[in-house]
Every structure is written in C-alpha cells, then in structure tokens.
Amino acid sequence: MTTSTKAYEQLLLKLKQASLLASCSAVLEWDEQTCLPPEGAEHRANQLALMAGLVHEQATNTEIGDLLEELESNSAWDEDSYEQANIRESRHDYDRMTKLPRRLVEELSRVGTLSHHAWVSARKQNKFDDFLPWLEQMIDLKREQASAIGFEGNQAYDALLDEYEPGVSSELIEQAFRPLQNELVKLVAEIQNSGVKPDISILTRSYPIDKQREFSLDAAEKIGFNFKAGRLDIAAHPFCSGIGPGDCRLTTRYDEHHFPGAFFGTLHEAGHGIYEQGLRKEFFGTPAGNSTSLGIHESQSRMWENLVGRSRAFWNLYYQPAQKMFPGALSDIAIDDFYRAINDVRPSFIRVEADEVTYNLHIMLRFELEKSLISGDLKPADLESAWNEKFQEYFDITPDTPAHGCLQDVHWSAGLIGYFPTYALGNMYAAQFYQAANKELGNLNELIEAGDFSTLKNWLNQNIHRHGKRYRANRLVEVVTGETLSHLPLMTQLKQKYSELYNL
C-alpha cells in the first residue's frame, strides 16, 4: 500500500464517520417535520444544535486537513476519477466549514428549528409579524455565515449559493436567467392572449385523500422509487430526505379539493428519491456518494414531475386508472380536458403548484428578494410589501394573504438561502438531459405510454446518479449532453408543448 493510498483510506474513514453522525441528525429532522408534538420544538432545537456541533467538530478535525494536504501534494489520480473528486470536494467542504465557528453552526441549527415551527404557525394563521422576529434572526445569522466564509455586502449571497451549487456565482445565475426570463415573458403573454382557457375546476372536485395517497404511491413506485428502501409521509412542506443507503424518506401534503398538489408533489419528491437511491452505496459518506449539486438534484425531480408526469404519453397510460380511482371527479371528464387542466398556464400565487411556464418566474422573484435581504438592501420588516409589489410586477396579481405570498415557502425559516435558484437551474438541466436521453434511447413518449419507465430511470442511474460529485454540475452537463448549459432546450420543449395546447 502506497503512502497516498493509506492517506486516502484514512480520509474516507473520517468522512464516513462524520456522515454517519449527520445522518442521525437527518432522522431527527425528518421526525421534527412529520411526528414532533408542538411542545417538543425547543427540546428538538437543542438536540439538533448539539448534533450540528458534533458533526462540525468531526468534519473540521485537523487530521482531515493534514490528510488533504498530503493527498494534494502526492495524488496521481486522474482529474475525473472518483478519488480525485473526493479529494477536491472534501477540500471545498473542509475550507468552508473550518471558517465557521462551532457556536455559529449550532446557533444556525437551533434558530432554524425554532424558526421552522414559528413559520408553520404563522403560515397557518396568516400572520407575517409572528414570523418576522425569526426571519430577522436568520438573516443576521446567514450574513454572519457569509462574512465568516469571507464574503461581504453584495457578494455575501455568493457564499450561501456556493453551499447548494458549488462554483456558481449570482452573476452566473443572472446570466443564465436573463435570456430565459425574456423568452418566458413572451410565451406567457402569447398564452394569455390565445383565448384558450382550460376548465381547471375539474381539479378542485372531491378527490378523497386516501385514494390520492394510493394513486400517487402507485405512480411513484412505477417510475422507479423503491419503497423497500423508502417511505412517504405527510409534512407542512413536501421534501425528500436521503438519510442513508436503504433509507430515503419522502413527504407530501394533501388537499381533497386540489388533485395536482399531492400527486405531482409526490412525483417530484420521488424524483429526488430516485436520485438518492441511485447513488453508489459503497461511496456513502464521501463526495462520490453525494449528489453533485441541488440544481442537478432538482433536474431529476422536475423531470419526473413535469417532463414525464405532465406529458400526454403519461396520461394516455394513467387516465383510465385515474377515472377508476376517482369516479366522482373524473368519470364524465374527457382525457383532453383533464390534460389541458393539469397543464393550465396562468399567473398563480403558490410556487409548488405553478405551471411549467410561470414556475421559473416564481424562482426569479425569490432570487432577487433573498439577494436583497442578504445584502441589506431589503429589510426583513419590508419583505411582505416588497414581495407583493414584485409579484404584481411579475404576475399582474397581488397575493391576498401572507400564506399565498411571502409565507408560503419553508426555505427562509430553515436558513436555506441560496437554494431557490437551483429550481430554475434544475428545469434547464432537466430539459437538456431529457433531450439527450431521447436522442440516445429513442422516442421516450412511446416508452412512457407503454409503461416503460425503467429505460429512462436506468439511463439516469448510469449517466447522472452513479457519478455523485465526480463532476461538478456544469461539467456533468457537458459529459452527459456534449453541450454547455443552455436555456434553449427548455424553451424548445415549452414552446412545442404549449403551442399545441394553446393553438399558438
């Protein structure tokens, strides 16, 4: 065994120990969002803060730094190898974490837990002022985090963005978003002026919750989520938690009078889960066993939710089963009417329920606001009014309640600032990956209509999931598609689909 090989094995051992501890925290966090009694929030906050501190202590052990230095000076592994990826990304994470004092890490965790519960209550009661003190605390803490990493003022946001999309700056995000936004605004206007207005009341009929659960569980399993290695529960805001090999937890929320919410939300989270289940188990705890970025993660969820789940091919297969499951709601509805309803495009308040076309505008709005919050240009106390003004500017409608406005998302309560842009990036990545898969596999619509989801899933497993962090996001796009990131595949897909639906 060479010296570098020995050092590498020692590094992996320490990384896996820290990851095992972090996975214990993930179970506590899942339990918090699904099972925790309201009066247990403060105790859970203290538990999670302690765990965050212990994980930070292990992840910033000076021995990891020494091993990385040794490996960086002696490594002979190829740049695209899993070994070199583990060294590169471990260095990136180690340098970030060692700049953060344990006190700050614990406080971010503690406040995040309490803030989440305050958000749940404020959202339910439509009282932004109840959540405001927690938002102020969280923004102060995230600024402190950015400063500790080495970013101030208008650049502070980049430190937070880097946690979710390594190597990407807000400037690069703006460059990617600008042409997409321009094209989307044009398409939305064309659709609004088309005169076509699908009957979306179809989707607000009675869809019994037990039947929704049965129907969505079946669909999630059919597309490839393994329920022997995962489960589905209820939470205030849907999420996926990849706790570790063989344990992936999905959540959703149900509304008897809104079919798309739970169904497409479950497909979305199942897409995340398929990615988690596609990571190589033997690499658990190392960068090679983690997703490359949240943008890539979102590409998988948005692909299964929209490119597959909202396709005509999917409902050619699934509409008759849907009619049998929900006879009271759908027995008298033609498939064409249902298909138009689930692909209705119109300005709406709720991001997670937005259509494919307007969804990215929701993301761009949040991107602008959270950048301003971190830079100090926007005070938390002014967020509600700023949100409503910008929403009117983007969508020509004004939220009627805080729950339909700035209180609708869980992210800021949990300190997930810098996360939002990854959704729009994910849509761009998804369209590009799907286009590449279609070229390589043949007509995906034919496969989907025939009930063959495994061909696409296996392609994603091989081309994306198994790589972990072997490649960073932009490099992965090039490896998989042969092209750099572009908004064009997404716009091509949207224009083709919605031109047919709206007679454009």
Please outline the helices and strands.
Elements: H1 3-34, H2 41-59, H3 62-74, H4 82-98, H5 102-125, H6 128-149, H7 156-164, H8 170-192, H9 209-223, E1 230-234, E2 240-244, E3 247-252, H10 259-278, H11 294-308, H12 312-325, H13 327-330, H14 335-342, H15 356-375, H16 383-395, H17 421-441, H18 444-449, H19 454-463, H20 473-481, H21 488-502
Parallel strand pairs: 1-3
Antiparallel strand pairs: 2-3
**N/C terminus separation:** 66 Å
Strand order of the largest sheet: 1-3-2
- Total DSSP helices: 21
Mean pLDDT, as a whole number? 95
Quickly give the structural class: mainly alpha
The number of distinct β-strands equals: 3
Residue ranges: pLDDT <50 for 5 or more in a row? none
In angstroms, what is the radius of gyration? 23 Å
Outline the structure in words.
- This protein is mainly α.
- The protein has a domain at 3-155.
- Helix content is 65%, strand content 3%.
- The chain has helices at 3-34, 41-59, 62-74, 82-98, 102-125, 128-149, 156-164, 170-192, 209-223, 259-278, 294-308, 312-325, 327-330, 335-342, 356-375, 383-395, 421-441, 444-449, 454-463, 473-481, 488-502, and strands at residues 230-234, 240-244, 247-252.
- The protein has a 3-stranded mixed beta sheet with strand order 1-3-2, sandwiched between helices.
- Strand 2 and strand 3 (247-252) form a beta hairpin.
- It is globular and about 70 Å long.
- The N and C termini lie far apart (66 Å).
Structural descriptors:
504 residues, mainly alpha, 3% strand
